[in-house]
Design goal:
Blueprint (H helix, E strand, L loop, with lengths): L17 H19 L11 E6 L5 H12 L3 E4 L14 H9 L5 E6 L4 H8 L4 E6 L5 H15 L6 E5 L6 H10 L6 E5 L8 H9 L3 E5 L11 E4 L9 H7 L7 H5 L6 E3 L20 H19 L3
Length: about 300
């Protein structure tokens, strides 16, 4: 397995080894300290990152853009579909071919089609980072999730992680499972209705890597075992309307629900949240999802730095 190198495309979390993740954590920590000291970083001066989000995004798109600017580089954003030539019928592939001819140093792409990031990497000469391809993967989200776990516990080895919600269509679940599988003695507890259990290709990887995992339908059965509860929303946009209506509300984390347990794990969520995680949970010290989002800035700064060879 190749390790992180200059000019690398980032399409899947399966590309990363343990040493890759540890290197990213180290670089992210170095950059974090520099930013918190108020240093003005200028290592990406003259470099241009193109962000092409063919599917809506807030945190991922903005954190990539902030990351590049904080490194001293520039960002060109595709903008919403209605103001681009896609409104006239241009394909995303042709959009990427055109922009790649302008010579960006890095392309960050999100698309609703599973596998689109791999296609983009084949089209573009510039390195491509997958910012989410349908229900398939979201590798940089997994990196920032593991970075958050490391910052809380000082380790990733031996953590017990419960992943709850839409485990079938939620792309963060596959990437986080793959990334955690690099570490020793990790235990994963999948918590969902049967209809939303993890996809077979995800479980197959965990089996191949001999990662311990168990499937549950109720969080009550496992909550006090967990170090981390990773809550996800139902992917309404990827489900039949009747399935969404039937399954919504099948799990919900509230302040009162958590307080009945003698031990509360840290709570993570890739955001955005809807009804599955209520705002009254925000007051708990274990609620780490906004810190998690902040960690995305430093993780993506580190990734950009390494891929551009800065």
């Amino acid at each position: 397995m190749k390790t992180l190198y200059k000019g690398m495309d980032v399409v899947s979390a399966l590309q990363f080894s343990r040493s890759d993740v540890e290197l990213l954590i180290q670089v992210a920590e170095d950059l974090r300290r520099a930013v918190e000291r108020g240093e003005r970083l200028d290592i990406a001066r003259g470099r241009v990152m193109f962000t092409a989000f063919f599917e809506p995004s807030t945190r991922t798109r903005l954190s990539f853009q902030f990351a590049m600017v904080k490194l001293g580089g520039s960002v060109v954003d595709l903008g919403p579909e209605e103001v681009s030539s896609m409104a006239k019928g241009e394909t995303p592939e042709d959009t990427l071919r055109t922009v790649d001819s302008y010579g960006p140093d890095l392309v960050v792409v999100r698309h609703r089609e599973p596998g689109f990031a791999k296609k983009a990497a084949e089209i573009c000469k510039a390195p491509v980072i997958n910012a989410g391809d349908g229900y398939n993967e979201h590798p940089t989200q997994a990196l920032l999730d593991v970075y958050t776990i490391w910052r809380v516990f000082g380790r990733v080895d031996g953590v017990k992680v419960g992943m709850m919600g839409d485990l079938r269509y939620g792309r963060t679940i596959s990437s986080l499972s793959y990334t955690l599988s690099n570490f020793r003695d990790v235990e994963i507890y999948f918590i969902s209705p049967k209809e939303l259990s993890p996809r077979e290709e995800v479980l197959k990887v965990l089996d191949q890597r001999r990662v311990k995992y168990e499937l549950y339908e109720k969080p009550d059965d496992v909550m006090e075992k967990l170090d981390v509860l990773y809550v996800t929303r139902l992917q309404k946009e990827r489900m039949k309307p009747e399935d969404y209506e039937r399954l919504k509300g099948s799990y919900i984390i509230t302040y009162d629900y958590l307080k009945k347990f003698s031990r509360i794990p840290i709570i993570l969520h890739p955001l955005p949240r809807v009804w599955e995680l209520t705002t009254d949970v925000d007051v708990l010290p274990q609620a780490m999802y906004f810190e998690q989002a902040k960690n995305g800035l430093y993780t993506r700064m580190a990734l950009i730095k390494l891929i551009l060879g800065l």
